[in-house]
Write a structure and sequence with these properties.
The protein is mostly beta strands. It has a single domain, classed as Fimbrial-type adhesion domain (Immunoglobulin-like). The chain has 1 helix and 9 strands. The longest helix is centred in the N-terminal third of the chain and has 19 residues.
Length: about 170
């Protein structure tokens, strides 16, 4: 028994010596950071019809650029704009109330079934539908927007404008 107690005392002494062998300690902190990128970004270039025809449609095009993370499925919707009346988007004369009707389309067929709208989302523009589904791949994906403005017939000279909201649903 004396040998066991002696061995235990010896081990305790060794443990005590090994702990007390440290001269001190210092601490610091480490900052951690990660960035989660936007899942989807969207931008649109202006659509400028230029001088309108008095006797026929005037055509113009623009682009919507979407960058969606790889594998994200999305749709692009375009609302009715600021001067929507009944079933028409309208360009309105700056400083006046005169208007010119126009449409936005997903392709150059300019068919009613190709009108670009938000009828399946916000439903501010009842004809047509959003564009999609599209699948993101982490790069800029460019989508063409085709515009067609009606003949202005007898409208006064001036600049006619509208603003639409482009929304990406994902």
């Amino acid at each position: 028994m004396k040998k066991i107690l002696s061995a235990i005392a010896g081990m305790a002494l060794m443990l005590n010596l090994s702990v007390s062998a440290w001269a001190g300690s210092e601490t610091t902190t480490m900052n951690l950071q990660a960035t989660v990128p936007e899942a989807v970004t969207v931008s649109a270039s202006p659509l400028d019809f230029g001088p309108l025809s008095a006797s026929d449609y005037t055509y113009a095009n623009s682009t919507i650029t979407v960058n969606a993370a790889s594998g994200i499925t999305y749709h692009i919707a375009i609302d009715a704009g600021q001067h929507f009346i009944s079933i028409w988007r309208k360009l309105e004369r700056s400083g006046g109330t005169e208007e010119v009707s126009y449409g936005l389309y997903k392709d150059q067929s300019y068919g009613v079934d190709q009108e670009w709208s938000d009828s399946d989302y916000g439903n501010t523009y009842p004809d047509g539908s959003s564009s999609g589904p599209h699948t993101g791949d982490g790069t800029d994906q460019v989508h063409n927007v085709y515009g067609r403005a009606s003949a202005f017939v007898s409208n006064p000279a001036g600049t006619y404008t509208d603003v639409v909201t482009v929304t990406v649903h994902y």
